Amino acid sequence: MNEESADLFQLLDEAKRSDLYNSIIKESKKVTFFVFGLDQAVRKKNVNGKSVALFLLNMMREKFLETKHPILIWINSASLNLIYKEAQDFFSWRTTIFEFDSKK
To answer: Does 102 map to a domain?
Structure first.
């Protein structure tokens, strides 16, 4: 994800139409989607000054259940706090948050 592609559901839908995804599914292998770049995507704002990516996460949360695969979203603590602030309903969809201490 990035500021230009802030719609995670659309990105997952595109991934599910890819040749790689279809070949993995045909081989009956397990699939997990790792999402990187939400930290950049949250920077794109709508006319109300809210994050476009977080608005979409919040409004489309039930659509993620259609994916039927685990989705791991890798974000920093600032983005997590922004989700708490702008997309509270998104947390009704998620199941677990893992936090890791990391040093730069």
So the answer is: no
Is residue 14 within 8 A of residue 8, CB to CB? The reply is no
Rounded to whole angstroms, the Cα distance separating 33 from 16 reads 10
- Quick check: helix, strand or coil at residue 72? strand
Indicate the length of the chain as a whole number: 104
| pLDDT at 18 > cutoff 80 | yes
Mean pLDDT across 48-62: 88
Residue 10 binned pLDDT confidence (cut-offs 50, 70, 90):
very high
Flag whether 57 is in a domain. yes
Residue with tokens 């695969």: 69
